[in-house]
Specification:
The chain is mainly alpha-helical. Helices cover about 60% and strands about 5% of the residues. The chain has a two-stranded antiparallel ribbon. The chain starts with 16 loop residues before the first helix and ends with a strand.
């Protein structure tokens, strides 16, 4: 099991401390969903907060690519699976 403590979280210039916290929360939950289990509602809520910071698809895709290089995990694929799931506790490997 990887530890997300070793990941370089991709960030964009101009973000506030609060923006960085919100985006980092999603990165952490995506990693946890791929390594173990997370609350699906918490993951979906974190994604909505992420979308407030990163509203454009192009920036979202850029950050997803950078995060995948660093962690091996896709935000896009993780969120697709979470949105399709009805489980309370969510894991990509379910």
């Amino acid at each position: 099991m990887k530890s997300d403590l070793n990941f370089d979280y991709p960030l964009l210039s101009g973000w506030t401390t609060q923006d960085i916290i919100q985006v980092s929360q999603l990165y952490s939950l995506v990693a946890q969903a791929n390594e173990a289990q997370v609350s699906r509602i918490e993951l979906l809520t974190a994604y909505q907060a992420f979308k407030q910071v990163v509203p454009t698809k192009s920036e979202e895709k850029q950050l997803d690519r950078q995060f995948k290089v660093s962690s091996g995990y896709s935000i896009y694929k993780t969120m697709q699976a979470a949105q399709a799931s009805t489980a309370t506790k969510f894991s990509v490997t379910q």
